[in-house]
TrEMBL record:
Residues 445-632 form the Alpha-L-arabinofuranosidase C-terminal domain. This is non-reducing end alpha-L-arabinofuranosidase. It catalyses: Hydrolysis of terminal non-reducing alpha-L-arabinofuranoside residues in alpha-L-arabinosides. One of its GO terms (biological process) is L-arabinose metabolic process. Belongs to the glycosyl hydrolase 51 family. Pathway: Glycan metabolism; L-arabinan degradation. Residues 1-20 form the signal peptide. Transmembrane segments: none annotated.
Length: 687
């Protein structure tokens, strides 16, 4: 068995002198840990997790003829471009098109281009790009020629392209799909995707284009898939559950703009998009099926929400008018788990390439319905009674405050959200210890340190742009409380998950990104350490002191034969811990260390300010194992001090007849603890 120690510390000035703590670890588990415990929450992916590179690719929800309708698009070499309402649209869902006119007298490549989302288009030499578009000539023409599809820098340097033939006789919509390889990696993401024709050969031609698209290689090569670097960073967390599709983005500002599953599945031309709830249009290219595929790709348990009859603008659907919305929720669940021979929604799933049902054990009724607590009781009752009758094996989660208002039937799970300061997270690390064990469970569906302002975390004063080490360590202390109480806390998700560093509506986020890179925060590394060091059994130990500065927990990973010890130090001074373990351990292992100043963040300018390092450690039966720097070493300003630490040791069984046998299942030692691990946890370095 391997022993792993995860030490996390912050700068909360709660003690002034060093302390010594002895922790006695039990030889038996108190409860199993849910496999769903550490997960992800996500709700809006255009320009980020969703791999599509083109902004405003289908002219969804724009006003034809306006400058705003051309967001992301521009003319190349003097061509005339505008967005029109098509008389014969490519689909009823996409009524608009880009109208291109090649003026007379032009020579050379002439057409239009797209600048991508916000910070541009990343181009990587050797990568294969897949481009597609629909085109038609509004009036039949004798023209027949090549269209060049490719990438170029803002200055016009070619980065890779290919050609396709189009015909002026094509007056109905025709899709063109091409692939090409980038030949150069430019130094900037200020690049342009272009569709051009020879100006002289195409002089005077008018052509309409619809549903244009450009994808780089995607995560696991999924068609219509995820951006590789963001998806891989999330996969590296090893998340076990996934909450979707929201969040606020589920609700809509109005009833008509709510997220609707049926408008997010099928061909991209059948998805009209919607005004998202974070200030921009959602293409819905990342729809219900893509979310479910993502769950399978990362082996995550889906935690799916259905719309509950309330929109962010304050409208609650009347009790006697809920029927159509309940039916839509039934259809949504049937799309996920239904029998294709009995459900039209399930048959649609099957026709889209997934005849087998997806996994689905949890469904959330709405999002943050404490905002409409006066109407949630009748909405909850109507939805749950109808859904439970159809899907008796699914657990339904409520989204009001716990037991306020009282709901019927009694919720099996409550979704709890909290955005607070570092001190709040430390002070509330024991909040679930006092919850009744009455069969009710809890989902910490959104949580994060967002401010250092204890008086008002929503004020601009103290609001964080990026997670800081102090906040991340405080989150870790809170997470240890969730893990200790995982007999009733079945899942937890940091939120928000990702944000564009050049254009965001909320800070901080777990991951920052722009067109060219992903920026992993200090909180990201906390999530990764917890996600990659799971236990399936919780091992009791001496409880930390409430309102104290040290937090710890012990879990067992049976399959890997590991005992994992995690520690959070929220003190401003050095602290020492001794763990008395009722097991023998091997003499060496590895330590993963994360260290940095309390207010230090990983930023685009310094993305690796705080990253984990790995070293080898050794231990003995009674000799102390000093894991952090001694006071005799250089002062803090000249050396790193670990705030996150993971130590792995291989253990072996012990019997009375002789020495232990390695690599066999761990068994309790009958006599008093035979192993002692001593850890000194230092304070944050002065800044």
């Amino acid at each position: 068995m391997r022993r792993s120690l995860c030490v996390l510390s912050s700068i909360l000035a709660l003690v002034a002198t060093a302390t010594a703590v002895t922790v006695t670890v039990s030889s038996t588990a108190s409860h199993p840990i849910p496999t769903t415990l550490w997960g992800l929450m996500f709700e809006s992916g255009d320009g980020g997790l969703y791999g599509e590179l083109l902004q405003n690719r289908a002219f969804q929800l724009v006003t034809p003829g306006t400058t705003g309708a051309l967001a992301g698009w521009q003319a190349v070499n003097g061509a005339t471009v505008s967005v029109i309402k098509e008389s014969t649209p490519v689909s009823s869902a996409l009524p608009n098109a880009l109208h291109l006119t090649i003026p007379s007298g032009k020579t050379g490549p002439t057409g239009f281009g797209n600048v991508g989302y916000n910070s541009g288009l990343k181009v990587t030499a050797g990568s294969t790009y897949t481009a597609s578009f629909y085109y038609r000539f509004p009036t039949s023409s004798s023209f027949s020629g090549s269209v060049t599809v490719g990438l170029q820098t803002a200055g016009g340097q070619a980065l890779g392209s290919t050609t396709a033939t189009i015909s002026g006789s094509q007056t109905s919509w025709q899709q063109v799909t091409v692939t090409f390889q980038a030949t150069t990696t430019p130094s900037s993401t200020s690049n342009l995707f272009t569709v051009t024709l020879d100006g002289a050969a195409a002089s005077g031609q008018n052509i309409n284009f619809a549903m244009l698209s450009l994808f780089p290689p995607t995560f696991k090569n999924r068609a219509n898939g995820m951006r590789q670097d963001i998806a891989q960073a999330l996969a590296d967390i090893a998340p076990a559950s996934f909450r979707f599709p929201g969040g606020n983005n589920l609700e809509g500002n109005t009833v008509s703009t709510r997220w609707q599953w049926n408008t997010t599945v099928g061909p991209l031309t059948s998805r009209p998009g919607r005004q998202g709830d974070w200030g921009y249009v959602n293409t819905d290219g990342l729809g219900l099926l893509e979310y479910l595929n993502w769950c399978e790709d990362l082996n995550m348990e889906p935690l799916m929400a259905v719309w509950s009859g309330y929109s962010l603008g304050g409208t609650s659907v009347a009790q006697d008018q809920l029927g159509p919305y309940i039916q839509q929720a039934i259809d949504q669940i049937n799309f996920v788990v239904g029998d294709p021979t009995k459900s039209a929604a399930a048959a649609l799933r099957s026709s889209l390439g997934h005849p087998a049902p997806f996994k689905l054990n949890y469904v959330e009724i709405g999002n943050e319905d404490f905002a409409a607590a006066s109407t949630y009781p009748y909405r909850w009752t109507a939805f749950v009674n109808a859904l439970q009758a159809q899907f008796p094996n699914i657990q339904f989660m409520a989204t009001t405050y716990v037991n306020n208002p009282v709901l019927s039937p009694t919720p099996q799970v409550y979704d709890v959200h909290v955005y607070q300061s570092p001190s709040w997270f430390v002070a509330n690390a024991f909040q679930y210890d006092d919850m009744a064990r009455n069969g009710q469970k809890y989902f910490e569906g959104e949580y994060a340190v967002i401010s250092t302002n204890d008086a008002d975390v929503w004020s601009s004063t103290g609001r964080l742009v990026y997670p800081i080490m102090q906040g991340s360590a405080s989150e870790a202390a809170f997470m240890l409380g969730l893990e200790r109480n995982s007999d009733i806390v079945f899942a937890a998700c940091y939120a928000p998950l990702i944000g564009n560093v050049n254009n965001n509506q909320w800070t901080p986020n777990l991951l920052g990104f722009d067109a060219g890179a992903v920026y992993k925060s200090t909180s990201y590394y906390v999530q990764k350490l917890f996600g990659n060091n799971r236990g399936d059994q919780y091992i009791p130990s001496t409880l930390p002191t409430r309102n104290g500065t040290l937090h710890w927990g012990v879990v067992k990973n049976t399959a890997a034969n590991q005992l994992i010890i995690k520690i959070a130090n929220t003190a401003s001074s050095t602290q020492s811990l001794t763990f008395n373990l009722p097991f023998s351990v091997a003499s060496s292992g590895t330590a993963q260390i994360l260290t940095g100043g309390a207010s230090t963040s990983n930023t685009p300018q310094n993305p690796n300010a705080i990253v984990p390092t790995t070293s080898t450690i050794s231990t003995g039966q009674t000799d102390p194992l000093l894991l952090l720097p001694q006071a005799s070493q250089p002062p803090p300003s000249h050396r790193p001090l670990p705030h996150l630490l993971l130590v792995a040791l291989k253990a072996f069984t012990v019997n009375a007849a002789g020495p232990g046998t390695r690599d066999r299942p761990l068994v309790p030692v009958v006599q008093p603890a035979t192993s002692r691990i001593h850890i000194t946890v230092n304070a944050f370095p002065l800044e």
